[in-house]
Amino acid sequence: MTDRAPHWPQTVGSEQFSLGASLQIWTRRLLFALVGFLLLGPLIILLLTSVTPPGQLPLQASALTLENYLEIFTRRGTFTLLRNTVVYAGSSVILGMAVAIVIAWLTERTDLRGRVVVRILMFSWMAVPPLVFGYGWILLTNPGNGALNALARAVFGLSSAPFTPYSAVALIAISGLGLVPTCYVMISGLLRNMDPSLEDAGHVIGASRLTSMRKITIPLMRPGLLSASIYLVMGMVQTFDLPLILGTTAQYPVLSTRIFLLASPDGGLPNYGAASAFGVVLLVLALGLMWVYFRATAMAERFRIVSGKSFRPKRSKLGRLSFAAYAFVCIYFLIMLLPLLILLWTSLFPFYRVPALAELATANLSAYARVLYEPTVQRALVNTALLVGISSTSVMFLSCLISWFSVRTASASSKILDVMAFLPTAIPPIVMAIAMLLLFMRSPIYGTVWVLIIGHVTIFLPFGTRTMNGALLQIHKELEDAATICGAAWLVGLRRIILPLVWPHALNAWLWVFAHSARDLTFPLMLMTSNNVVLASTLYLTWDYPDQTGAAAIAVIMVGVLMLIVVPVQLYSARRAGET
User: Measuring CA to CA, which of 4, 49, 313, 350 is 20 to 30 A from 569?
Assistant: First the structure.
């Protein structure tokens, strides 16, 4: 037996390398063109509309003017809008973070039993749209016949209703409670990766558990908490659904609802110029928060506490605090479950009734049969399936390609492409929806589900690229180099090697986009026609009709379908991670 050096087909290899490099170049160019179209086209139209004279459309105006900006900045209510927006966003995040920190500490740093169930429930809450959550609380706390008000009157003999959903406090409380699962996802990782020896050192010198948390744990988490808080404030500044259904009745306007009402007034012609000018103001506010977010994440380098030295997280024993811990968690989940239960109750009767055992005898499923028989709901089901399926798959497909170029190539163009894909984070969805409306108003796809798909791909692309960037950074380039040496083409290596390794990250990101695409109300409502209705817009219209029973049935169907998809994936992920 003789040792012979392998004979590499130089000509074929060179041709394959040349074809692979050419394919990469053309793929990157196509991604540039696509991302540029998704991002720059709507923004250019938005900026042009903001300086277009009132009553005219962009690209048709003979002159440009600052009249729209002068109008909004000289209006007396503009300062109130800005103040309400900041107070609403900041207060909601403070409430959500406070509750999430407690639950995250219990599940990640203590011996709380059932913590895996708590974690799965937190992650699965994405299946409950904020619109559903808000309608449930309206039924619970409506001053006239809300279930909680009826209970308070019966138990305490009150003459007036103690609760109302139509106030600034109620809007902040409901939004903050709905934000807790998102806060939990961001905070739990901070606590899970913290070396417990740092707190043990405090215990050695006699510090109590509370003192160690105040002097050691919280300061070490401060950069992570700050960056998470800023990111969440950015999201709440841009939120639209709960301020629309609760804030408008409560006479508590914020920027997002003001933009919507200008572009879609109940009476009269839309004022696209003023709406676009407000949109630019909201965009500048979001860009400012984005700059602060990047500064906060850059500071986090000085607070890194996980190094190459291994450690094993140690859980504190709750002891006598076990009852209080379980009570806190149970009370929170009860608060979150009540809106769903009242919607389920309402869907079982021809009209809303205050919950009572005696009423169960007349409960039936006729509301479900009625709404499922309606052509609008049937069309909404089909459109929703197309929207969430195509949007989530397209986002992850583009994210995988963009992230590969960003992580695997050192060219400046790849970095620019990555930055372009991340920029929609700073663009509020209501602003992007206005821009999409103006951009596609005279195009063939306006009024179809495809314009909604384009909008969702644009706003969810940053999440997909951030997720896949982190996943690809964990995989060494030598695996792909080995495939290339063996003669595998670039796309073959990406499909046969990279994707099987990053599929858990891709699956979780796909699921997140899937659920949030189904939850979104902004694009479906701003771009709604009779042909592109989806479940979210149908739910809003049915409630506004008003048809509370039909809206409750649609809400239950919506949550049920999402739960059937989200929960099994979460259970599978937990099992693969060895947590069950």
Answer: 313
